Structure formats: C-alpha cells, structure tokens
Amino acid sequence: MISALGDISRSARRVEFPKGQTIFRVGEPARELFFLLSGQAKRATFSVGGNEKVLELLMPGQSFGEAELFGARPYASFVVAVEPTVVLCVGGDSVRRTLETAPQLSMRIIGALAKRAIDIESAVAASHFRTGCQRLLDYLLAQVGSALEPNGQMKLTLTASKQLIASRIGMTSETLSRVLRELADAGMIVVDGRNIPLQNTRIASHMATAAPEQPVFPRKNRHSDHAALAARRAAVPNPCTVINMSGRQRMLSQRMAKFYLFQQCDIHVTRSRVGLAEAARESTSALAELAVAAKEIPRIEAQLDLVSQHWDLLKSALAAPSHADGKRQASLVSTTSERLLRQMDAAVGLYEALAS
Predict the structure, then answer these.
(1) Cβ contacts of 123 within 8 Å, gap of 6 or more
(2) Residue 34: predicted pLDDT
(3) Which domains does the chain carry?
(4) How many angstroms separate the CA atoms of 7 and 245, rounded?
C-alpha cells in the first residue's frame, strides 16, 4: 500500500491554471486523474450551433476525469478554469496500478462515479419533468450540502456566476433572474447579491405538498384566466399523461431500492437519503392521481389496489434502518421493489389497452 501511494505521489504534479485556461480539450486522450485543490472550473460542451452547455461546476475537493480514464475513451467535453485554479494531476497508469492493491481507494473511485451517474440521471429527469423554479431550488439545496432544517434559514453564497448557473440547470440568464424573483416572491429565498439565505420553513412546506410533474409557481401574467383553465384541465390527466405517470412509477420503484442500498453501502448517504425521500413522495403523489384517473374503471381500480398493497410493503421495508440485519434487509427491499415494478407494469398494460 505504501509503495503504491509512493507511485502515485511520484506521478502527481501540481498545476496552476489562470482564469480562462483550458485544463483538457474535447478529443484529447485521457492520461491523468484530476483533483481540484482550489479555485473553480467548469466542464462543458458545445452544440453544433456553437451554444455552450455547462455540464458540471467543479469545486475544491472534487475529482474529475475518472470515466474517461477508466473507460479508455477520449474526452467528449472540455474543462476550463473560471477563476485562478490549482489542480493536482495524477498519472493514469499509477492510479490503475494502485487500484489493484488498494480496495479503499477503489471504493472511493466507485463512489465518485456513482455520484456522477446519479447527478446525470437527476439532471436529465429535471430537464423534462421539473419547472425552472424547481430546478433552481434543487440546485440551491445541493449547494448547501446538508439536510434541510425544519426552521430558521440556511446561509448560502453563490460561488459561480449567474450565467454559469443558468447554463448548468438549462436556462438563460434572463430566465434565472426571473426564477430567483419568483422564489423570493414565494418566500423561499432572500436575494442579496450573491448571498441567498434559504427560508427553511417555506421550502419544507413546498417540498411536502408539491405535485412533481406540474408547475408549482404560477407565473404572473395577464392571461390568468387561461392559466386557471389549464390548471382545471390538468386536474384530470389525459390518457398519455396517465401512461407516462404509470411508466415512471416503475422507474421510481427501482430508484428507491437503489438509494436504500447506497445508504447501506455508505455511498453518499445524505444525498441518497434525500433522493429516497423525494422518490417516495413523488410515488405517493402519483399513485393518488392515478387512482383518480382510474375511477369507474373496475379492472384498473383493482390493479391499482394491488399496486398500493405492494407500495405499502415497500414503504415498510424502506423504513427499516439501512444497516438492520444486513443482507436480509437488502434482499427484502430488492425483492419488494421488483414485485411493485411487476404490478405497476400490469397497470401500464391496462392503461395502454384502454387508450388504444
């Protein structure tokens, strides 16, 4: 182990990048693993039309370049220092040799890759299913890095520019400014330049009652009558929406099991706990909407009763402490989530037959 760490230290180099300098470019071969020591960098890509999309804002303590290094693929994105930045660059060959004899380091690398996979999944889902206000609130909560307290406020100072944040969460700078105002109007944040104190009670209340697939913050405009009409129509989901909601329930059953097992393996415990709670809340809300849509359709009502029974079983399994009875509890969660998935799959089939 000591010799392996010596191998890593000999291959490492400390590099200072001034603001605007590229750390690596698209198409370059991956030969090193990077650790950001100080400063800030962005990982981004360009569209065919030349528009930049920020994929990740890198902060001190983060590593990057793992996927390309271990996947033996050239970089598909680029990383640029957005302020004077210091990076530790470690030779890829020495990292690979060390992983063969240092299981603890292997687990840390796996954890970093797992976190990145969760972040990508969350970002893709958010771009399709969450409003601008919800996406920005998710981002702000992630920056705090701790569980939301029920009362008081949490202090947050934005370290990235609004332009970078907007690109990261998929909106324009103008939209970001409007969304900040809407969150402030809703009493969830206070905007004081880059200081954004989060108002815990109002945020917790919103998170407990929000319907995941519908806008939570009404836009103020002169077409309020049209907005009210659209809201009334949205109260009764159309067949396509119902099928999509049903299909998403299948995914949620697997996501909850994954987050539970992450906690059991001590992988990003806080983030996994929050993700599990959000998935459970979304599942409960969607099942309630599906039950309304299924009224007076006996076959679907009966199938959703079975779904609800299996959901209750899964909730009981998830409620047990993550380390309770080890493998047996993990097996119970996995088996119960699979059974819920199969019951929801049968409901999806009934909805699809009804719509055809």
Answers:
(1) 170
(2) 94
(3) 2-111 (2.60.120.10), 130-225 (1.10.10.10), 239-355 (1.20.120)
(4) 52
